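Example 3.2
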Amino acid sequence: MSVGVFEWFSSLPKLSHEYESIRREGLTMLGCLVELLRPVTEVRVFVAAELAEEFAGNFELKSNEVREYSGAGQPDQVLSAWQELSQTVDFGWVVAPEMDGLLHRASAALHGQTTLINCSQNFLALASDKWQTATKLKAAEVPHPNTYLASDSKSALAHVHSAQTWVYKRADGAGCDGVRLFDRAGLAALEPSGAHVHAILQPWLQGEHFSASFYAGPNSLTRIGVATQKICTKFQRVTLDGLKPADFVPDRDAMWSVAEAAVGALGPHGLGWIGVDMVYETETRTWLVIEINPRCTSSIELFAHEDRLARSIAEVLEVLG
């Protein structure tokens, strides 16, 4: 068996400075996946020829593990090359950190060309849309913040205490991209407009931030690890300023139970690495799900050496093979 790792930022030579940190994140994830897959299967990494020299300097890969291709530079060109390359491997794993839109396009392009072992289809669509995620979590009675469309801020105001802070985020955003904070006055001044069609509002929760990581198979969901998130707020902006393995998790069993229920609420086709961002609300001592990440997250670097992760990958490849 062989697995091809398709990572966006080893395929796009021309990137603006703002994407440099995401590119480093993607290459880190790629390195982790190679180390994880080597013991259980043959690995293939596909690299744009223009980046081959730089890539070789960052990774210790065997000659038979790297396949170069030319003509990359734009997403459509990359996808065309990937479609051809995917036919040379038994399985494909697409990596697109913080870029769910590209993950959608790649998964659709490779569907039918090879067997993907990352989230795709309906699960990917639901998890990538925070409004749809909130709707599914509510229907399944999974604890989560009250969620409103930003274009209907009046509904949020009707259900919020005047002292509460609200979070504005793009429904299709990833990480802290475009996240802003509003008090009641700011929320009231948020005029309904087309610009808010793809944005949501949620109350800002006071508590501890965590991310629970899973590895999902066709009929399995393996708990991998829990990381603490250092969330900072400044000038109405929200940033993730650090991630580390959690030394202590309050009511850990309840956390895993809520996280598993959240993944289950989105239905089938959850596959590969899945991260669930959560808050432990200290005042009420309850766990709430903030969002579900249907892709490799930064936590993979923290937990790549977990034995149960390697075993889960091997089991999934055996089932799908």
